[in-house]
Amino acid sequence: MNSQPIGVIGAGVAGLSCAQLLKKSGHSPLVLEKSRGIGGRLATRRTDLGFQFDHGAQFITAQTSGFDALLEQLTRTGAAGEWPVQDRAVTVGVPSMNAVAKEIGAGLDIRRNTLVTSISETGNGWRLATDGSEIFCEHLVITVPQPQALTLLGAGNPLSREISHARMSPCWTLMAAFSEASERIATEFTNRFVPNNPLTWIALNSSKPGRQDVNCWVAQADADWSADNLESDPEEIKTEMLFLLCDELGLAPSSVRYASAHRWRFANVETPLGKPFVRNSAGTLYLGGDWCLDACVEAAWQSGVAIAENLLEHLDAS
Hints:
By secondary structure, the protein is of the alpha+beta class. The chain has helices spanning about 15-25, 65-75, 100-105, 145-155, 160-165, 185-190, 225-230, 235-250, 295-315, and strands spanning about 1-10, 30, 45, 50-55, 80-85, 90-95, 110, 115-120, 125-130, 135-140, 165-180, 190-195, 200-205, 215-220, 255-270, 275-280, 285-290. Helix 1 links the parallel strand 1 and strand 2.
């Protein structure tokens, strides 16, 4: 059994931000991530044909001075840049959205492709069962989406009741590349929110800084449509969303060079927890993520930082 002082489940922005602050304070957290990549919904899909799509979070904004300072730092290092959305400039990763996660997580001990299937409390910590081994942690931080956190905790855990009112909604995302030139469309818009349409968001992904000069588009469906079609066949979803996208762009379906649909089961925060994290009375188990505060990248960062600060206080006092 591997023994670690601090374990962090989830390498999204909350987990990475928490682990990075712990590391800077002299600790050695181990981050466990079920996927091969990090960043959670700061995600980028690359295809064999050379196309690239940011198919998760589309951009990042800042409301607090601390997160704004982080975005400025990322911009200075070249991991982020500005992109106009409507009448404001927002931040995006460069050359992809997951570049932000890679920068935040730089230097961390991250064990990828490691699915934690269950957790159990021991006399002085937590035992984590993974798909390949067991890991013991004195302190455990869980930053996965709230429904997945509930599964790990189990119905009998008091923290399950404490976080049960938080709600997350799904999102279907379409990624499409066209052979027709996008210059005509790009003069009209590079991104927009679409009212009264199952496709609530359309963006020319290749208009973001640092992207390849190809006609790659991303369209995201609204929460209600995504929920109604949550278990539909991805090929059927792709066909339906592609028809809607072509109609919006005025492009012929015959000009499609690539198309794929991706389902995010837990994409957006509908009802936040209302506080940055929860913890058990012993201070050995923490839960957090964007679902605690708001549907944005900044909320995930705030939650992760707040967990780390509280855990550091607890460790200093013990």
